Amino acid sequence: MDPRTGLPVVGMVGGGQLARMTHQAAIALGQSLRVLALTPEDGAALVAADVRYGDHTDLAALRTFAKGCDVVTFDHEHVPTEHIRALAAEGVPVHPGVDALIYAQDKRAMRERLSTLAPMPAWQPVNLPEDVVEFGDRVGWPVVLKAARGGYDGRGVWLVSDAQEATEQTARLIEAGTPLIVEERVALRRELAVQVARSPFGQVAAYPVVETVQREGICVEVLAPAPALPEALALRAQQLAIDIANALGVVGMLAVELFEVDGVGESGLVVNELAMRPHNSGHWTIEGARTSQFEQHLRAVLDYPMGETTLTAPAVVMANVLGGPDGGMSIDERLHHLFAADPGAKVHLYGKQVRPGRKIGHVTVLGDDMEDVRARAARAARWLREGK
Amino acid sequence: MDPRTGLPVVGMVGGGQLARMTHQAAIALGQSLRVLALTPEDGAALVAADVRYGDHTDLAALRTFAKGCDVVTFDHEHVPTEHIRALAAEGVPVHPGVDALIYAQDKRAMRERLSTLAPMPAWQPVNLPEDVVEFGDRVGWPVVLKAARGGYDGRGVWLVSDAQEATEQTARLIEAGTPLIVEERVALRRELAVQVARSPFGQVAAYPVVETVQREGICVEVLAPAPALPEALALRAQQLAIDIANALGVVGMLAVELFEVDGVGESGLVVNELAMRPHNSGHWTIEGARTSQFEQHLRAVLDYPMGETTLTAPAVVMANVLGGPDGGMSIDERLHHLFAADPGAKVHLYGKQVRPGRKIGHVTVLGDDMEDVRARAARAARWLREGK
């Protein structure tokens, strides 16, 4: 507890935009997020009052950071599993706990653990290049090779076309020490995501199912609710996420990324990935849901009762803002133009230097008509990216 | 400009809850509010990254603080007028400027300035106790004696019943050096408020008119929109606020507190007070309007185009949370109970130690039916105050 306020201190390992936006939510709850950042330029370090510096792979730094925290939680998946286990063994309340988090850190562990819980693409672990060739010959080419650990935003995922490419690519990655799995390339209709939050008490709150639109492996848009999703499929997706959260004992936010498919299993859904933290596919909740995923994550890890997850408008679209070409116009000027063009667009900038392709923020637009809202969000993101 | 982000640095003098909530809004805009606080326990100092310490009545401290700020603005009205004038003369962009702000700082100046602009209660300046007696005998007893400067939340306002009380009370206040005005006690139906924002460019955005419910001089509830307010009266109130903002050259948020009355002037409205900053009567905008008053204040002082001011729900109620009796239950426990009782209530705590009667936060509830929403907001505030 913070003696100045009588309210809890949540420590978040990692100082990126997720910590930055979690701090915003913490302020409303009377708290001040404690952040473990790498540098003073980290997005959260620019705005939070209680910033400590240290490397998330350094157990001593994590130990020092955890002192005085009521709960320790995470902005990313890159804290070594054994360090989290060590902290927990020393009595630090860590949420999500390592026995859950491991399935967000390690795709092989996740695929193994979910095999009896959820529909998934065909997959197998990779120890040798031959494993990939055998798998591709069996399920059909191309196949998807994935780093079991450390991938994000399209990194750590490789589409492999045939046996020769598989052999070369896999040999190179094994040589580099990358742990691998291989998956069938699913013929998907579209990608969906469900956010749920679970508290230590076991309360689970599920958000409406959303559609996530990817381009080159990076999420560019999230549509809430997922347009024209049959009610039965939406309920099945939410139930799947709730079942996973319960079975794995997740505490905090869980994002389940799904493929909507024809003819795989009976459900029309297969699980792609899990994240156990506020997630890009849930940024729309800041304005679009009664409780944002950031507030919900805090409520969950602190074992507060969960907040309402209902939509605040019939149609909500979040569009990521990537750094664009330097068109001689500063981000501040672009913001002026965007605000003039659309007074209703809500902007979230992460305090990052603009670099081409870098995720520097997002915009959210709310309204009654999904097509209209989607066009406005795309235009707003383009203003911030290109200044026109 | 902050070289790390390419975005502007707004400095806010004063570290209370208004600065705290403005910092939250600044984060979304990619900024980090620079705060001039008195102590590390100030609400904003607990959560902001860029906090400087100094007294707002110390010109040297203000000068140091202003260095590197793109704009300087205010969390309260207590910065000496001559200091603001000095800063502006030295080239510091100060918004609102002193020629506007004076009318929020000084009730006598405000009444004089608005005399040709807006309907107002009968009033007159007070130099001697006899002035009050003469005024009361003329307009009728009781009358309202007000400190021309420095009052808030019911402080600096005295209801005076007759000539004898007027003489004693006024003599005592004059003796203490309090500058005074006296006003008729208006037979009001209810209190209303309008928020508008104005930019240096001259763009003005008006929020829907709200009803403010006071108890013992302290605002306890704000209802948005003001229930059963005739459209014509609502438009007149908004136009009045826009006219005042333009005439005074306000930059930033302006809150115009109004009395709805019978038979005073032709408008059915008289102006009670002005505030030129985010104001308690506008806290409902955080969830209840598309653009919060805190974001709007930043946009205005930075000369960004204004954001949309439309309601996000048909009925929005903000209830202030006052510190209650110590019922053996911590604020954290009370929060648990509130969240269990109403998962949709939005809480804003200011990081203050709980003391009876102290404004420690507010709650906002949104919905379709004003009576229902109002009951929920009152109950939520009671949970946080009394734990039951």
TrEMBL record, chains A, B:
Catalyzes the ATP-dependent conversion of 5-aminoimidazole ribonucleotide (AIR) and HCO(3)(-) to N5-carboxyaminoimidazole ribonucleotide (N5-CAIR). Catalyzes the ATP-dependent conversion of 5-aminoimidazole ribonucleotide (AIR) and HCO(3)- to N5-carboxyaminoimidazole ribonucleotide (N5-CAIR). PROSITE patterns: ATP_GRASP. One of its GO terms (biological process) is 'de novo' IMP biosynthetic process. Belongs to the PurK/PurT family. It comes from Micromonospora polyrhachis. This is N5-carboxyaminoimidazole ribonucleotide synthase. The gene is purK. GO terms for cellular component: cytosol. PANTHER family: PHOSPHORIBOSYLAMINOIMIDAZOLE CARBOXYLASE, PURINE BIOSYNTHESIS PROTEIN 6/7, PUR6/7. InterPro entries: ATP-grasp (IPR011761), ATP-grasp_carboxylate-amine (IPR003135), ATP_grasp_subdomain_1 (IPR013815), PreATP-grasp_dom_sf (IPR016185), PurK (IPR005875), PurK_C (IPR040686), PurT/PurK_preATP-grasp (IPR054350), Rudment_hybrid_motif (IPR011054).
